[in-house]
Write a structure and sequence with these properties.
Helix content: 25-40%
Strand order of the largest sheet: 5-1-6-11-7-10-8-9
Structural class: alpha/beta
Subcellular location: Cell envelope
Low-confidence stretches: 1-40
InterPro entries: SBP_3_CS (IPR018313), Solute-binding_3/MltF_N (IPR001638)
Pfam families: SBP_bac_3 (PF00497)
Distance between the termini: 41 Å
Family: Belongs to the bacterial solute-binding protein 3 family.
Oligomer: single chain
Mean pLDDT: 85
Order of helices and strands: HHHHEEEEHEHEHEEHEHEHEHH
Number of helices: 12
Protein name: ABC transporter substrate-binding protein
């Protein structure tokens, strides 16, 4: 079996394995030793040269903000290229992984990636882990539960089987079987679409715990389309040897954020300043370019931004 659909195979889910068997091929980027400008890779960006910022480190080391010198982050590890498992099935990789490592290095901490289901991450911040870094769109509703540090911008993309055999149109998805990940903005939007359909032509929303399962559902014909963050959908499409294609334009571009326990202003400030430092010194852009997702780059990290677009 090839590495082409490695991000799905690594999940060891039965549906994902069916998907991989149908999408054999080879990713040149995964073989390359280039750590600066290669997309579709499962080798993370090298953060070993990032040095601790003593002033920022004091923000976390002089308090009980983090435990045992670790910065723990909850992630849903099937969301390539943001966070997923490499072809060995156990090594977390992706631009969110690299950002977490870079932030931790800047703060003089050891990163600790905690695998979690997407819909359990917000309720667990501050208890199970320090941060939630998982390509999470910042919304007014979510800001009622956690604080956010903005670090990326993404939209939503529809994907269908190559050739769009069901002849779907993004302006009218009634009657379609729509695969989404549980707890995402896209799930909310798909449910809104379904509510607007006539009773005899309802859209069916199929929610999956992992994004890879949603993509697999479309590749195997169980669902008609999946809806996901634009970089995630784009990566999934690129890994399927032409099985899937984007449908329509990118929709609803919005900022994504690193979630911090509500009211933990000192940790939020430390993270915001660390992200801004990485933006200013060029490390942030190098990480995004490494994964081919630099189109969503921001130049300013903010705590609870008022402009969410």
């Amino acid at each position: 079996m090839s590495l082409k659909i490695k991000s799905v195979v690594a999940l060891a889910l039965s549906a994902a394995m069916l998907f991989s068997a149908a999408a054999c091929g080879t990713s040149d980027a995964s073989k390359s030793g280039d750590s600066s400008d290669s997309s579709n890779t499962t080798t993370g960006y090298d953060v070993s040269t990032i040095e601790k910022d003593d002033e920022l480190a004091k923000l976390v080391s002089s308090s009980d903000l983090v435990k045992d010198g670790e910065l723990s982050a909850g992630m849903e590890l099937s969301y390539a290229p943001a966070e997923f498992y490499a072809e060995d099935g156990k090594t977390p990789v992706g631009y969110d992984i690299d950002m977490t490592k870079a932030i931790a290095k800047t703060l003089g901490l050891k990163p600790n990636i905690v695998s979690s289901m997407f819909d359990t991450i917000i309720p667990s911040i501050g208890s199970k882990y320090d941060l939630g870094i998982t390509a999470m769109t910042i919304t007014e509703e979510r800001m009622q539960s956690v604080d956010f540090v903005s670090y990326y911008r993404a939209g939503s993309t529809w994907a269908v089987q190559k050739g769009n055999p069901k002849k779907l149109d993004t302006s009218d998805m009634c009657g379609a079987k729509i695969a989404v990940q549980t707890g995402t903005v896209q799930e909310e939007e798909a449910n809104t679409i379904a509510k607007g359909c006539e009773a005899d032509n309802k859209a069916e929303v199929m929610s999956y715990k992992r994004q890879a399962e949603a993509a697999t559902a479309v590749a195997t014909g169980k669902a008609d389309a999946f809806y996901a963050d634009s970089p995630v959908a784009g990566y999934a499409i690129s890994q399927t040897d032409g099985q899937l294609e984007a449908l329509g334009d990118v929709e609803g571009v919005a900022k994504q954020g690193i979630a911090v326990k509500k009211g933990n202003t000192q940790l939020a400030e430390a993270v915001q300043k660390a992200v801004q430092k990485l933006m200013d010194d060029g490390t942030y852009m190098k990480i995004l370019k490494h994964w081919g997702v630099e189109s969503g780059a921001l130049d300013k990290a903010e705590i609870n931004p008022t402009d969410l677009n």
